[in-house]
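Open question from group meeting: does this chain pack into something compact, or does most of it stay loose? Before anyone orders reagents, we agreed to write out a predicted structure and look at it together. Recording both the input and the output here so the notebook holds the full record.
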Amino acid sequence: MTMCKQKGFLLLLWVIMLSVLPLSTFAQEKLNKKVSVNVKQASVESVLSSVKKQTGLSFVYNAELAKSWPKISLNETNRPASEVLDRIVALIGCSY
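Structure tokens returned:
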């Protein structure tokens, strides 16, 4: 690879890194946002919808698999979204 091509590749790599880094920081800010979820025997989908409304986070999951998830009860007040999500996935035996 010529020096010019190497510099061009490094510049492209740098631009990609700079464009991805803010997304990572943005997502982390959303995961640190405080949320409150107080439900009894609710569907996971409805709980995730509540978290989405409070944080702006988006969730992707298999709808067929979601049908097999148990109803959950949570009483979380003013907790970081990441902790609430950890609790949810522990209750249904999944991961993110």
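Observations to bring back to the group:
Confidence is low (pLDDT under 50) at residues 1-10, 14-21.
Strands lie at 34-42, 72-80.
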